[in-house]
Amino acid sequence: MRVVSDLSAIPPQARGASIALGNFDGVHRGHAVVIGAAAEAARRLGAPLAALTFEPHPRELFRPDDPPFRLTLAEAKRDALAALGVEVLVSVPFDHGFSRIEAEDFVRDILARRLAARHVACGPNFHFGHRRRGTPSLLASLGGELGFGVTVVEKATGEGGLPLSSTAVREALAAGDVARANAILGRPWEIRGVVERGAALGRSLGFPTANVRLGRHLAPRFGVYAVRAGIEDGAGGVAWFDGAASLGLRPTVNPLPEPLLEVFLFGFSGDLYGKRLRVAFVAFLREEARFESLEALAEQMRADCEAARAALAPA
Predict the structure, then answer these.
(1) In the chain, fewer beta carbons within 10 Å around the N or the C end?
(2) Closest Cα to residue 26, out of 185, 175, 159?
(3) Tens digits of per-residue pLDDT, 184-242?
(4) Nearest CA to 72 among 83, 87, 88?
């Protein structure tokens, strides 16, 4: 995938594409429908398939004091879009200057002039431009004038009316309903980060953990999860291990000021400090709890690992 983030220097390979528009936080099944509409037009026109998104998410710019809410940061979003066949990712740097561009100027200057879009696709709630004044109907009207086609995809739902939206994923994760979140996404939700040194409490109890900070990721329900953890080798490879993870403030010993993800990988031995880890959430096992002794905590950790193994076992 070619990634373009400088709108003043668009490479020739990024011009003339069929472009899916959106923030694409989570790159869920609803987003896949928008990508699919752009892909259909790309095939018909013999054009590249592109996605145009914004980084950071506009909400992070306008509401910086909100708790972190992102489902996918830039790298994970890029990988998920590439998995859907996107060949060109236009990642627009979203700052206060860009936010003041009028909706019509966004279409005329960026989509038509700079990117020479041949087709664009978006969802029914896609808004753009200063004060979000741009609408799908404006996009369709200007597309007809400027010579590119427009597909506005209807609101997508899944089985039994399952809402396919980023908001629905966030709500499911906040409730610990990992199965529902993953059903909306179409894949397990992940947190990615670098393993940091901790207090080595898990190691002292016989369960050495890899500690990963959430950073700008949304914090799901605090508790213990069955996970699959991937260790990146720095060359594009990932070694996956089943495991159990605790996410929260660690209330039993030296409570933390902010959430931490602590992951125990089954069958792994070695040094993970400084390694990049991908933690895919498979099942919620129990809520975070405070224990009266380290012995009680260790006993519960053994039970958690057995529960995780059961949840991860093939059906």
Answers:
(1) C
(2) 185
(3) 999 999 999 999 987 767 777 889 999 999 999 999 999 999 999 999 998 889 999 99
(4) 83
Q: How far is CA 41 from the centre of its chain?
A: 25
The position carrying tokens 């004060």 is 131
CB 223 within 8 A of CB 177: no
What would you report as the CA-atom Rg of the chain, rounded to the nearest whole angstrom? 22
Q: Which tens digit of pLDDT belongs to each residue from 52-66?
A: 999 999 999 999 999
Residue found under tokens 């397990």: 188
And the tokens for 258? 């902010």
Of the candidates 33, 50, 28, the residue with the CA atom closest to the CA atom of residue 155: 33
Spatial separation of the C-alpha atoms in residues 270 and 277, rounded to whole Å: 14
pTM over 0.90: yes
Using N-to-C axis directions, what is the helix angle for 178-185 and 29-45, rounded to 10°?
A: 10
Who contacts 138 (Cβ-Cβ below 8 Å, separation ≥6)? 103, 104, 107
**Residue 10 φ/ψ, nearest 5 degrees:** -80, 120
User: Where do runs of H (alpha helix) occur along 7-150?
Assistant: 29-45, 58-62, 74-83, 96-99, 103-105, 136-146
Which of 261, 259, 121, 250 is CA-nearest to residue 189? 261
Q: What is d(CA 306, CA 300) in angstroms, rounded to the nearest whole number?
A: 10
The pLDDT tens digits for 165-194 are 999 999 999 999 999 999 999 999 999 999
Three-class SS of residue 134?
A: strand
When pLDDT is averaged across residues 99-118 and rounded to a whole number, the result is 98
The torsion region of residue 249 among left (phi > 0), alpha (psi -120 to 50) and beta comes to: alpha
* Contact by Cβ (8 Å): 196, 210: no
- State the DSSP code for 217: B
Determine the average pLDDT of the residues in 32-50. 98
